[in-house]
Design a protein that fits this description.
heterodimer, A: alpha/beta, seven-stranded mixed β-sheet, B: mainly alpha, 3 domains, globular
Chain lengths: 206, 321
Amino acid sequence: MTRADAFGFLLAFVARLITGAQGHWKGCPPKAEQRIYFANHQSHFDWVLIWAALPHELRASTRPIAARDYWTATPLKHWITREVFHAVYVSRQRTDDQDPLEPLIEALGNGDSLVIFPEGTRSNKGEPQPFKSGLYHLAQQFPQVQLIPAWIDNVQRVMPKGEVVPVPILCTVTFGAPLARVDGEDKGAFLERAREAVVALRPSST
Amino acid sequence: MSLRSLSVGEQVALLFVIVFGVLFAATIAWTLLSLRDMPDDSKARHERFGRDLRAVWIGAVLFWLSWMSGAIGAVLLFGIVSFLALREFITLMHTRRGDHRGLLIAFFVVLPIQFAIAGGRWFDLLNVFIPVYVFLAIPVISALAGDPQRFLERNAKIQWGIMVCVYGLSHAPALLLLEFAGYDGRGAFLLFFLVVVCACAQFVQEGMSRRFRGMPAARHIDRSFSARGWIIGVAVAGIVGAALYWITPFKPFQAFVLAVVAGGAGTLGELVMRALKRDAGVASWGNARALTGAVGLLDRIAPLAFAAPIFFHLTRWYFRV
């Protein structure tokens, strides 16, 4: 076992101890198929929670997206995102000659699964914001990859914006049925449908 | 060969052999019954009994492990249970951003200190640390967070969670570590006595309340809880306690009184928990519909958390240990 694996185990254990990190597979079983998970985004903790809720075998091939300028700034951040999470780095600065989705396309081309937060930024208003178009373009280019909606619940209470130490509160990640492809659907309709699929997974009790 | 002639270690070992033997027998009987066809309503009852049986198994194993592993192990194990219970409690309460620091203190400062006090056998401090010091410290931290909305309510929730999940449960390892003169090394019997009388009271009270269908004492909280059922439950707990006096340092009548008090406190604690649950809007802490995916731990520990502090205090106060 490498140091990164050991650290990953420890991190997943801590995440489970603090949040329970329960994965509820409502619409699909946890399977080693190529997938894009897309979820609501409320906290920095979201990715760790999804990752810890996945079965151990799926963790290595399921990769997050990380902003290159922030997550490579210090050796520690770089090591964690590269070695433990196998993150896909994207640059936030747009350059004209480069497609910002290119690293993601490359990862999907390699057969990896991705976790993306299509809102683009953290929202703590409860309702997810409108989705950015990246999910649409990826879905177009990789029609064979399953699109799995996920709702992460309660995590904003674990670590509110600005705090660094998480409070132990149980959280759940609910995974829904794969989003169906509709022929000839335009971008706006697809993104709205995807967002509704995520919101529909929210547990009913308040 | 009489029981008294056995060494302490042998007596304790015998206790565990009996406990696990009974559990084995119950589990085998339950499994055999599962093979039979049965109508839906008794099937539901059968399932519920199976769940309770599993909980008793977990409790018994926990009890055995905490006994085997000595002071540090007992404190650690009950500390972990307390942590999980508090996590479940806080999940169901509506907390606000301003509570964050207070909650951190509760989980990562108060809980470890309280269990360390229990492990160190500083029982005088154990009794007052949370009700006095933490009671005053939590609102201060909360006030410094600067959020006046529902201030009293939010603090009360945190205080309550700490009292039930941390204070109440910390008395279980304390009982294991309590030292009576001439009763060395038999702390396991005290905890066993407490758990058995609480379980008896709970079981009989529920059964009787259901059978008699008397006037429920608090209809909106629990449809079945009735005064008559409760009195019978407590009386049975007292009789069982008196019958078990020989495993405790008490005389039969003392054992009877303590069992009545512990059984009464435990069943009433269960009622209070039910009221809290209603308030939080869940039918059971571990309800699948609740967003938490909690395991229903609070349900199981509530009677112990209410009975243990009273039992512990009365014992120490009356017997001056």
